[in-house]
Amino acid sequence: MASLQLSSHFLGTNTKKHSSISISRTCSSPVPCTRTLSRKFMSCSMSMNGCEGDFKKPLGTAETRTMAAVLSPSAATESLISAVSEIKSQPPPFSSGVVRLQVPINQQIGAIDWLQAQNETHPRCFFSRRSDAGRPDLLLDLASENVNGNGNRDSSDHDLVSVAGIGSAVFFRDLDPFSHDDWRSIRRFLSSTSPLIRAYGGMRFDPHGKISVEWEPFGAFYFAVPQVEFNEFGGSSMLAATIAWDDELSWTLENAIEALQETMLQVSSVVMRLRRGSLGVSVLSKNHVPTEGAYYPAVEKALEMIKQKSSSLNKVVLARNSRVITDTDIDPIAWLAQLQSEGHDAYQFCLQPPGAPAFIGNTPERLFQRNQLGVCSEALAATRPRGASAARDKEIENDLRTSLKDDLEFSIVRENIKEKLNSICDKVVVKPQKTVRKLARVQHLYSQLAGRLRREDDEFEILAALHPTPAVCGLPAEEARLLIKEIESFDRGMYAGPIGFFGGQESEFAVGIRSALVEKGLGALIYAGTGIVAGSNPTSEWNELDLKISQFTKSIENKTLQRIN
């Protein structure tokens, strides 16, 4: 259990507290906010904060209703509007509940293209799974000992490619760190019989740190079950709407239906495929925090700490944010689509609470995936660029494999994750021990780890054990965090925090690296970090930061934003 104690700073206690956010409403017109979150919080839709509910009291109903398949998004929208009207005329006889209405569409349409077509005043979320083709499925290996009596694990959404959502049927947000009670509040609205009812969101890297202005709307954590959701599958699609209510929170079924109908009237069924080109903006300025002049002494200070015999510090990850100002606003969804074009081996995400900037990312790193009792994670550390030719790429790979400094950095990450999984699992498998994982622009040392949980639905324990990994914080975690707090002069926010979803059957979280916060009128903050271990060189680390943000900066150098029908 030492690993759980090690990470205890990063998640909250089990004590239930009263959230400082309750029901709020705003829209595109200036409507007074009924409540503030110790600061100015505005919302673009009407909803309830599930953290205020009694997590010990089960919902009256949790169900999914599937309509007949249709051929187009417009037909799906009409079908959903009719289904919502039917629920209004024949309401479920419960004081609380969650109902998902879904309409299959017999064609594959990009979820990100659908999201781009929607009104940007709504809260938005997007989550796209990465392709794991060519890598062993350790969860499947574990499942041969587990479920269904036939050696197969449940995978009702195995071909789900990506999800986009607008509005919130219910959201969960607070300034206090994410606690076990908050997790139970989310789980209250999920069901194994309705696996696609999911809460998408994320948490801050350090929930105890001071929240800067740009991160205020996200709180210490933010999750939401979308009001309207578009699911992209391999070969088909689905449009869905979710209604959630709880009379004890003064959010009735009638309130929820009215809010959903208001959102449905604004849903656009005209979806155009975004061309994955550059963004049509020009960079006016780019400033780094810290500057190169300040970064070098910071690395040297970290190296001095690592060398001290009195210090147990083995590694610390030092980050940088780069403020990019452009001549026109950056469209975060178009930017994400551009990242997606080269990110098949990565997760893409967008998280935008009410009245907030958009936090987007193209992260290669999985924090964990849970399917029933199976949980898998991975170690990803050490970085090299890709080579201009196959021969040069192989030379760089060999250098990465044989580097003692990089092997040390990677081994610290892998062994720490293995130790943490051992604290919550009966059996842990590591496969392979070390290989090279190649992405579009960089390559890393990599290993997969998987285990069998002692108890089902222990996502909170998984989070407590695994976040933060040494790949984004350091080791020991608390000592590294204190040094980061001392050295870094900016708020990481959700950069390097867990980003993903909780579901009734399955949950999955990526690590929010290779990410940017996009603000209207303020350009973007692009985040990157590097691991400092014995043998690190400040110049090499600075160059690695530039390499990691290049996927973002390359697309804002030319003005060629285009669409195709």
TrEMBL record:
Its main location: plastid. One of its GO terms (biological process) is phylloquinone biosynthetic process. Keywords: Chloroplast, Isomerase, Magnesium, Plant defense, Plastid, Transit peptide. InterPro entries: ADC_synthase (IPR005801), Chorismate_C (IPR015890), IsoChor_synthase (IPR004561), MenF-like (IPR044250). The lineage of its organism: Eukaryota, Viridiplantae, Streptophyta, Embryophyta, Tracheophyta. It catalyses: chorismate = isochorismate. SUPFAM superfamilies: ADC synthase (SSF56322). One of its GO terms (cellular component) is chloroplast. PANTHER family: ISOCHORISMATE SYNTHASE (PTHR47253:SF5), PTHR47253. Belongs to the isochorismate synthase family. This is isochorismate synthase.
